[in-house]
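queue> pop job 88
queue> type: inverse folding (structure -> sequence)
queue> payload:
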């Protein structure tokens, strides 16, 4: 007899929350089977509600759990590298634009 996905996923989440000891941390409250919540104060001094959740990935026939986790890590790292490259490009363009504006301003002042 095969155990249902809902029961298996619930057991995994319970095991993870237990291992983290989140239910024993002051201020954390069980919101539902998947999440715990906490009230915290942000950098602006405002109270915020934050949730800590466990998402159990679907089983895949085309890759193992380890391969799935690694593919998600690799995808995240690639996106972060792309973001950093775009930020560097924007910074370089801003420098070029600033130099161009300063040169135009200097030329205009020379003509005046």
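queue> result:
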């Amino acid at each position: 007899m095969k155990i249902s996905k809902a029961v298996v996923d619930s057991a995994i989440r319970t095991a993870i929350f237990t291992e983290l000891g989140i239910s024993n941390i002051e201020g954390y409250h069980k919101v539902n089977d998947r999440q715990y919540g906490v009230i915290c104060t942000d950098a602006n001094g405002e109270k915020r509600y934050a949730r800590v959740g466990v998402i159990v990935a679907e089983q895949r026939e085309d890759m193992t759990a380890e391969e799935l986790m690694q593919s998600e890590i690799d995808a995240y790292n690639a996106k972060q590298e792309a973001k950093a490259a775009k930020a560097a490009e924007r910074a370089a363009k801003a420098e070029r634009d600033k130099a161009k504006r300063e040169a135009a301003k200097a030329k205009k002042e020379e003509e005046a």
